[in-house]
Design a protein that fits this description.
By secondary structure, the protein is an alpha+beta fold. Helices cover about 25% and strands about 30% of the residues. The protein has a 5-stranded mixed sheet. Helix 1 packs across helix 3. It is globular.
């Protein structure tokens, strides 16, 4: 085995792996906002709304409005996925984006990123100028009880109603629904037939194997969403594209090294550094079902 690895192989592998992380590794990354960041903490500033007031007289003093400013903080952490190669020919194969090593490493990072995004939707968000405050998820207003029912079209509509009641313009913002296999089964078998009938859909969902969009909502199928309670209650997440922001301190990075301690095998390590935070409670709905 040679002691030096051609840098071109590693650069090409890094480019391919980066593409895989975005396109097939993570299912939720395209549905959230990613911002490049530096340091272990990254702050996202929020700006409150303005209210217009009536002018009731000539030469009236201008009413200057001071909107509410607030902050949310994402804590950045480093994640790695590493393996080894015992043949230099395998290392050269890494430039192939269909190579199993590239695909498996990309999927590892993709699953971790999806877990962090989901955790940020449902967990407590760090708030305040220095991030010392905490805002829990609003289960009272942003969660739909399971009601001993599956994931029905009625629940889907109820979740959209909650967003609209919060003044979310669902006609002017990208909406996503992240659901697992049980919810997909429920929607396709819903008695209203709104997911499968040509009266409501322009494609054959059962024939294509896909799940069509519904009322403008893009549906993401993922098994990463944690159950509310094991084997009894499950959940889907309806959210806007700006509900979660990801602070990306370091996108995919690839490093290789010859390991003298393991008979000079080539170690391939991949790293990412990022954090995520929920920006608003009002732009995500936790839909529970059985």
């Amino acid at each position: 085995m040679v002691a030096t690895v051609d840098t071109a192989f590693i650069n090409q592998f890094a480019d391919n792996l980066h593409s895989l992380v975005e396109q097939r590794g993570s299912k939720l990354r395209p549905s959230v906002k990613v911002e490049m960041a530096k340091g272990e903490k990254h702050f996202f500033d929020r700006l409150g709304s303005f209210e217009a007031s009536e002018i009731t007289s000539r030469l009236q003093t201008t009413d200057l409005i001071d909107p509410a400013h607030s902050r949310r903080m994402a804590s950045v952490a480093r994640y790695d996925a590493s393996t080894y190669l015992d043949d230099i020919d395998k290392l050269k194969m890494l430039i192939d984006p269909t190579n199993d090593y590239a695909i498996k490493l990309a999927r590892a990072h993709g699953r971790k990123l999806d877990d962090i995004i989901i955790d940020s939707m449902l967990g407590s968000a760090a708030t305040g100028q220095g991030g010392a405050g905490s805002q829990a998820f609003d289960t009272a207003n942003q969660q739909i009880a399971h009601g001993s029912a599956g994931f029905t079209v009625a629940k889907f509509n109820q979740a959209l109603r909650i967003l609209e009641s919060n003044d979310v313009d669902i006609d002017d913002v990208r909406l996503y629904l992240a659901i697992g296999a049980r919810a997909v089964e429920d929607l396709l078998g819903d008695s209203s037939n709104q997911m499968t009938s040509f009266d409501f859909q322009g494609e054959k969902a059962l024939a294509s194997g896909g799940l069509p969009s519904f009322r403008g909502v893009n549906i993401i199928r993922t098994q990463r969403i944690p159950d509310e309670t094991a084997d009894t209650t499950y959940r889907g997440l309806l959210y806007t594209e700006d509900n979660v922001k990801v602070a990306m301190a370091q996108d995919i990075e690839v490093k290789t090294a010859e390991r003298a301690d393991v008979n000079f095998l080539q170690q391939v390590s991949t790293y990412m550094m990022y954090g995520a935070v929920r920006m608003e409670e009002e732009t995500v709905v936790d839909v529970l079902y059985q």
